[in-house]
Amino acid sequence: MDVPFISSGALSRAHYALVRKIETATSIPAADQVLLTEIETIRERLARAGLTEKQTKEYLILLLYCSMNLSVGLTVNMDFALPHAVNLAEAGRTVQNKRTGYMYCAEMMPKDHELQLMLVNTLRKDLEHPSMSRICLALEVLIQSPSEDIIPAVQDRLYELLSHNSPHVRRRTLYTFQALSTCHRDILERVAEKINQRLRDQEPVVVTAALSVSLDLLEVCWSTIGRQVAWNARKTAGRYLAASRRPHRALSTGKDIGNLPDSGTNSTSMQAATTDHRSLFGTEEQCKRASDLLEAQSSTRKLWIDPIRHLLVSQDVNDVYLFLTCLDCIEPKLWAGTTSEVPAVLEGWEVERIMQSLHSPDSSIRLKTLRILSKVDVRIVETYYTQILQMDRTSATAEELVESARRLMEIIEVLHVKDGETYAHSLRDIISTLTSQSVAEKQEVLQNVVEEVLIKLREAPTDFRSAFLGVFFALLDNPEQPLGPTTTVIGAAVVCEYLDNSPIPPTHLLQALSTQLPSYNAAIQDACLLSMIRLIAACEDIPESAVAIARKVQEQSGRYIRRRCEQFLNLSHSRTIVQHIVSKSKSSSLPDFLMSLEAYEAEKMARAATSPSLSSISSPERPSSRASSQASHTPGKLRYAAYDAPKLTSSLRRTRTRSRSPYSDRSGSSRFINEVEDPMSRTITAGDLTLASGQIELQTVSQPRTLPSTPPQLARTVDDLASRVDLIALDSPFIADPPVTTTPTQADFDFKAMWDKLSKGNLRGWCESPMDAVVRKLQGDLKIAIYSADSSNPDTVALLRLKEGEDDSCMWHLRCDDLGLKDTIGVTLKDI
Amino acid sequence: MIHAVLIFNTSGVARLTKFYTPLRQSAETLVQKIFALVSSRSATLCNFLDAPELESFLSQSSDDGDKLRVVYRNYATLYFVFIVDSVESELGILDLIQVFVESLDRAFENVCELDLVFHFDEAHHILSEIIQGGLVLETNVEEIDSAVQEAAKARKESFASANPLSLGSSGVGGRGSGIQTPLGWLTTKLTGVSAR
């Protein structure tokens, strides 16, 4: 960021300095640290007495900037500034200052916050102020955050403002009533007469607002005045159409109000459509009934397609989308020539063009085309489906297979939009065809298929879902037909998520999942085992065969699956415990169940670690839980108490596909470049289930997570979804360590006290490498505690502090009483 | 209804976020999700996309099967993204994005990413002239511009009356006209010629 302060437009030097620091920060944690420090500084400054309005305003803007730029998962309570914001909104001498106060309240104040009441009087005073800008400001705040509490205080004044001289005030007042009506439905009825007047307003901006409010009014008011408003609104909408003013708004109003569309309005719509193709959106919406459109068509003597015909051949893909959207809204008999009454309106080459859209790279366009064609004749889509399904894919690459799967899924989504049963059968056909045709992909999971199916099921209506699940559970329960990996993964996820809807007894499902368990790879086994554990909660008796298979798999598998099998075997006789785990799960999905299961395991291990009988087992080699984790490391490895949560950078995780922006290039603000998405911060998708397939590098997932250093009063919380352990955990069959409950130990570790204690064993130096390299080398950051595993004294520790230099280097400072360890680390650091 | 207006740059850094319906999850997560959706689309694809996975982020006021759609436009280093339901016309929203950008351009005189960084509060104000409570307030650039200028003038007067000896401030953003920052300039005037 090379812009100088003078031309930056910053509020102040402090504002400029903050933005500069953030934009040039080398990493997201570094930027977060700057923001957290800034928030703390502002908190302290706001606590001081004698703040000027200008300072308060600046601090509030800086806080808003900080809030917007904090990274995902890092939430800081900024309520401490709310009283200042309320005060600024109340006592601000300029509109700009007041606006800032209001803006902070709107963005940061929760809806039911107690300070909301403090704003009532301020808003009332602003509404009564002679200045138009203050009135508009107050109205905008009301539109943005309407509340029932404020209605008694302002409704009389709002009623007056409906007749204010300024159209800007009248318009905003109308929208304010509309917003307040979400809290109190009857408020509109009182102003129905005024709304009626505003429909005849001189100013178009007011009329469009009145049209919008009249729609809401009609939902609550069916009295005489309500009908009068409806009649006027329709008339106004028609008048606006004729004048081609704000056609979209007028048409959408006409569409909503005009449940009984008359041909006059429709022909007006057609006229508008001929002058502006965008109006056709409204026209086709309004003329839902074919007869209406035909009538309108004959009265205008123009074909409805004429205004949009050119869009089909446009080079702009948006125009093609628009054309298809219009076509999608019109009944096929009006254009496809499916009936003898209405001839086809499209030329042969135009139809061909539409068919070509099936091969568009844009999935939205493909889907629209499929919908249109299925409305014309479903057999066209069925033929297309068969054609795509039977394509030769013997030499298809994985990408081509995924693309084929995507296109086939789109087709069945259109073909079986309401029928879950046929959808499930088609899905099975697609999966079996794709996996059987390509030899290389037989053991691969089609991850996009799993993801799309699970998303679709979550959104689908209940009857669709029930029908789908009926077929799918039956598929699982069919021992004669072996399931492929993709179907098994979908089955495992579906069993876990929708077990309550299963028509098949859970024991059968457990049996079915266990039968094929040995034939799959570790990732799929993991998903199956998790589902099997989930099934324990619903099974009265666990089939012996399932237990036997789990034992067999346990013997043959690597550490990770061995552990999962052990979990299954241990829990197979503890139905109530599994029920407890299920009840603790945030949702019924497989990732949440895994999260809940791991939490239970961690809790169990923590209890075991603290019980005296168990702690005695760990000595002498494992005098404490902390030491036990040290002992497992080879002498060459260093232990650390890192600040940053260890980043899991498995090749399986999706890295954020970021292109370096020209802005960043020029400014050198590289903090967002080349970064890897924090795996804990991204939304879990069903596709994560299948990320496991084809994994080569296996990773450790149970490393203790440590939180970065933050000011003590600032809690780092991760939002609900982001906090969940995603299904990536499923893909690690050879987990290095079982979950180690060392986090509390590390959290309790008092670095400062230890640092002070070791003041005699100093060692300092200057690394030629950037700090990141040092951190990577030591797998830590900033303040690191290093334990030597081969030392006879388990308490031997070396503490290292790293301070980053400006030229990609860093200064290090080591304290350690053990000379050997000190030298070892010293040599390591000097060698970097 | 418009549920959200987001501006982020081509690296996914949010420059303006405005939500008209309550969020169920953190805004940052939503921005990242949409960034992942939008940035992976090539320039040859259309500017509209259905995003059923966003349903869990935004509280839908109506349960009548209204699907959320993302309408976006990319201008130089910035993505302008509107999340709307099916009541809104996609093309209308695409035009509205253009209106918003032109309004920003008029207010900031050759708007660039830095203007949004240093004056995101002002960008909020301009947005409030166009959208109120998720509804389109105004679509005419001239009227928006005059409203913004009037507001700026009113603020200036109000500032002058509060600070009698001051000279007032120039321009909407307080930045002197004609002073150009050396980076992040949109390569052309944002008239839609280069935009898509």
CATH top-level class of the largest domain in chain B? Alpha Beta
Helix content of chain B: 25-40%
Query: How many separate domains make up the residues of chain B?
Result: 2
Q: What is the strand content of chain B?
A: 15-25%
- Give the overall shape of chain A: globular
User: What does the largest sheet of chain B look like?
Assistant: 5 strands, antiparallel
Radius of gyration of chain B (CA) equals: 17 Å
Unreliable runs of chain B, pLDDT <50, ≥5 residues?
Answer: 164-196
Number of strands of chain A: 4
Description:
- Chain A is mostly helical.
- Helix content of chain A is 57%, strand content 3%.
- Chain A is globular.
- Chain B has 196 residues and is an alpha+beta fold.
- Chain B has two domains: 2-139, Beta-Lactamase, CATH 3.30.450; 149-191, no CATH class.
- Helix content of chain B is 36%, strand content 18%.
- In chain B, strand 6 and strand 7 form a beta hairpin.
- In chain B, helix 2 crosses helix 4 (120-130) and helix 2 packs parallel to helix 5 (141-162).
- The two termini of chain B are 23 Å apart.
Short key terms for the protein model shown above:
heterodimer; A: 832 residues; mainly alpha; 4-stranded antiparallel β-sheet; 40 helices; 4 strands; 57% helix; globular; B: 196 residues; alpha+beta; Beta-Lactamase; 5-stranded antiparallel β-sheet; 5 helices; 7 strands; 18% strand; disordered C terminus
Q: In terms of topology, how is this protein built?
A:
The complex is a heterodimer of chains A (832) and B (196).
Chain A (H helix, E strand, L loop, with lengths): L4 H4 L4 H11 L4 H20 L5 H17 L12 H10 L3 H14 L7 H13 L3 H13 L6 H11 L5 H14 L6 H4 L1 H7 L5 H17 L3 H19 L4 H11 L5 H13 L4 H7 L3 H11 L16 H13 L18 H9 L6 H14 L1 H12 L8 H18 L4 H18 L9 H13 L2 H15 L8 H13 L8 H10 L6 H15 L7 H13 L2 H13 L3 H10 L5 H21 L1 H7 L6 H7 L30 H6 L75 H6 L2 H7 L4 E6 L3 H8 L4 E5 L9 E8 L5 E7 L2 H13 L1
Antiparallel strand pairs in A: 1-4, 2-3, 3-4
Helix pairs in contact in A: 2-3, 3-4, 4-6, 5-6, 6-8, 7-8, 7-9, 8-10, 9-10, 10-13, 12-13, 12-14, 13-14, 13-15, 14-15, 14-16, 15-17, 16-17, 16-18, 19-21, 21-22, 21-23, 22-23, 23-24, 23-25, 24-26, 25-27, 26-27, 27-29, 28-29, 28-30, 29-31, 30-31, 32-33
Chain B lengths: L1 E8 L4 E6 L7 H13 L8 E3 L18 E7 L2 E7 L5 H19 L4 H6 L1 H11 E2 L2 E2 L4 H22 L34
Antiparallel strand pairs in B: 1-2, 1-5, 3-4, 4-5, 6-7
Helix pairs in contact in B: 2-4, 2-5
